[in-house]
Amino acid sequence: MNSFIFRLSRLISSIVFILILGTTYYYFFIEAKMYGLSRDGIVGLLFICSILIIITIIFNWLCFGKFSIWMKKDKFSDE
Question: Mean pLDDT across the stretch 35-58?
Fold first, then answer.
């Protein structure tokens, strides 16, 4: 079970990383070129990224008892 939760944590962290990169790319390279940079867009982007990171940190804290975005393999593997 510990190995499953560790892998789930890695999957969530990877998805959050991809989502943050994707939303940042979309905002700065696509939307900003069409509509221009706006303060509301940047604040919204920071809000979305912050929520994603907080969700990841809370999940890792509840499952492993450690405030971290990326858990190390040597501590939590069953092997």
Answer: 89
